[in-house]
Amino acid sequence: AAEEARRNRLMRDMAQLRLQLEVSQLEGSLQQPKAQSAMSPYLVPDTQALCQHLALVKQLATSGRFIIIIPRTVIDGLDFLKKENAGARDSIRYLEAEFKKGNRYIRCQKDVGKSFERHKLKRQDLDAWNLYKILDSCKQLTVSQGSGEDDTTGMVTIITGFQLEDPSSFSVPMQ
């Protein structure tokens, strides 16, 4: 029951983050400077978000309002997809250029210290395994930044390319 509650909370939080992103995109298009205050200063796009919505990620990076953190697992995911996915290739080129320039708004997160190894999950459900790795990265970030419950400096927003309208279509670990 606790595991199911945790999963439900995770799905609810992800849906809420997606809504926040959509709202801030709409508000951003209206040029309201206060728009992004609902979102944390740290944005962590997953592999799908970079492949499908690179233009949006670039826009967020150039806004100067966020620091975009790219976990190692996301780079590995792009590397894995680059042969058949043009979006992955474009993302890799963009990230390499930004890292080389030393863009302070886009950072590669080194491998998180000791994360929970889920080798069985990696074989059975790569999407869920990658999500867990991203969550490990986010947890490390929030622990290092935040000072309390209502302190948004320790918040991290995950940007996903997954369609979240129908959570039941995901595997159980992914939910």
Automatic annotation (TrEMBL):
Single GO biological process annotation from the record: nuclear-transcribed mRNA catabolic process, nonsense-mediated decay
Domain of life: Eukaryota
Gene3D superfamilies: 5'-nuclease
Matching InterPro entries: Est1/Ebs1-like, PIN_dom
Major location (coarse): cytoplasm
GO molecular function, one term: telomeric DNA binding
Pfam families to which the protein is assigned, alphabetical: PIN_4 (PF13638)
Keyword list, A-Z: Cytoplasm, Nonsense-mediated mRNA decay, Nucleus
Organism, as annotated: Agelaius phoeniceus (Red-winged blackbird)
Annotated localization: Cytoplasm; Nucleus
GO cellular component, one term: telomerase holoenzyme complex
Protein name: Nonsense-mediated mRNA decay factor SMG5
Domain PIN residues, every copy: 41-164
